[in-house]
Known about the structure:
Blueprint: H1 5-15, E1 19-20, H2 22-29, H3 34-44, E2 51-52, H4 54-61, H5 75-88, E3 128-131, H6 144-159, H7 171-174, E4 182-194, E5 200-206, E6 209-215, H8 222-226, E7 233-240, E8 247-253, E9 271-275, H9 287-297, E10 305-311, H10 333-345, E11 352-356, H11 374-379, E12 386-387, E13 392-396, E14 399-403, H12 407-415, H13 426-436, E15 465-468, E16 475-479, E17 482-486, H14 495-499, E18 508-513, E19 519-523
Parallel strand pairs: 1-2, 6-8, 9-10, 10-11, 11-12, 14-15, 15-17
Antiparallel strand pairs: 3-13, 4-5, 4-7, 5-6, 7-8, 9-18, 13-14, 16-17, 18-19
Helix pairs in contact: 1-2, 1-3, 1-12, 2-4, 3-4
The chain binds 2'-deoxyadenosine-5'-monophosphate, fe (iii) ion and zinc ion.
Fe (iii) ion (FE) is lined by residues 277, 313, 358, 360, 470, 472, 489.
Amino acid sequence: MPLEGSVRIVQRLTSRGYNVEREAVTLLENASDPERAVDRLLETVSDDALVISIADVRAILEPDREESSGVDATDEEVSADRRAESTSGSTDPAVSGGKTPTGHDKSTGSPPEMEGFERSGDGSERSVQIDGDMTGESTGTGEYRDFVTVFRDRLDRLGSKLRGRVNHRPASSIESMPGGSDVAMVGLVNDVRSTASGHWLVELEDTTGTFPFLVMKDREFASMVEELLYDEVIAMEGTLADDSGIAFVDSIYVPDVPRTHEPSYADRHVQAALISDVHVGSDEFMEDAWNRFADWLHTEEAQHVEYLCIAGDMVEGVGVYPNQDEELEIVDIYEQYEAFNEHLKAVPGDLDIVMIPGNHDAVRLAEPQPGFDEELREIMSAHDAAIVSNPSTVELEGVSILLYHGVSLDEVIAELPADAASYDEPHKAMYQLLKKRHVAPQFGGHTRLAPEERDYLVIEDVPDIFHTGHVHKLGFGKYHNVLAINSGCWQSQTDFQKSVNIDPDAGYAPIVDLDTLDVTVQKFS
Ligand code: D5M
Ligand code: FE
Ligand code: ZN
């Protein structure tokens, strides 16, 4: 995949778990061969590094400083380039899934009042059940054997979704079978390489070892290889070569969601607002849009909205990205949560609220992320929200919603072909996670994984709704009847996002009918 300017550079680096200084991106973009520069950077930069600095980039560019005349390009030249880029791409808000946002034209600044109506239902029909909350269950010590255990658990549980479909054998016995035998294996994707003649070599790993499978480029399933991520669990079926050293693939299986999957619906007309990425404390937090949203929730139009799910990034946090402090309105993390709590108070007190943390929140970055600690729970006590881990599943009146913040989406979008996953259609990247039945398959790069006894990131049961955020883009659609929604954000474009042409969908609230799984989008910006 060729590099396409700064966005692509950032995608490649973030997909490997690095944050990157804006100036570093500019420098890479202006290198004589940006793609090679990023390759070189990835080879040389320390595995422990969290942030790619301008110094890291200079270090790898130094040898060809002469040829890369763009290195010293002035800001003006760079931004002129960017203007060209941004006019060529569409900047329409990405409201996908065939729905149009309904304009919100409530122009009053009047206090949130319930004027002569009551929220539908008396509360007795409500039900909120949490499943898969790992808060307080963390057992990992961070040692190597914990990683072994978590991958074993993944292979066990996702493998069991595949083992009934193929006549599988462990890697170690496949290599001792006679040439020409029909073979099948269930394993983690350990390596994917293209051969000189354009075929694919996929190495699968199980508890007994690894075995290579060759996918010929002209087979109809060859495109499936381009959608593979490291460490996802798949099955391959084929024929052993004469020397039993490799198998020629005839079929590839992924755990997937059955096409016939039938979602559950609520028994009455009731709605949930699904939002994320509030980023309180950022200069760009859109307080006015948030207030319009909170006001709207008090109106008759919103009387059926009885649930609110917030999929992470409540606050902007501190020290999450380089130079972030330049755009902080509130610099103290606890004060950010206090301010968030004040904004939460503006929404009706009779909503049932469920929240998970994101990468800007003050919990460990490695996934799964436990729900907030006691101190933060006390601060965020408005409306007695259910505070659970990232990811968690919440069942609202029988409708299960898998809540996951979405950091892996950056990686899925960077690694997979654009028609399979892109920032403009974030729900398609979510489809990939549903196919793989895992919210963050690729730990091979730098995505932070907390080793646990159990892989909490496996999508064991098919949810009715999959809700993520993080990429600050709004998009939704259905995959095998599962509704995937990536909610936008409440933060207008940051300087960093501007510099890499990320155009966020800010100030939208997708509202789901739990009795039909239909979505309407309310716009407040
Ligand atoms: O990230 C929002 C989106 O923007 C997500 O796709 C990552 C990307 N992003 C934003 N700032 C940076 C920096 N500094 N480096 C790399 N990627 C970035 P969120 O984490 O929700 O703010
Ligand atoms: Fe965010
Ligand atoms: Zn995020």
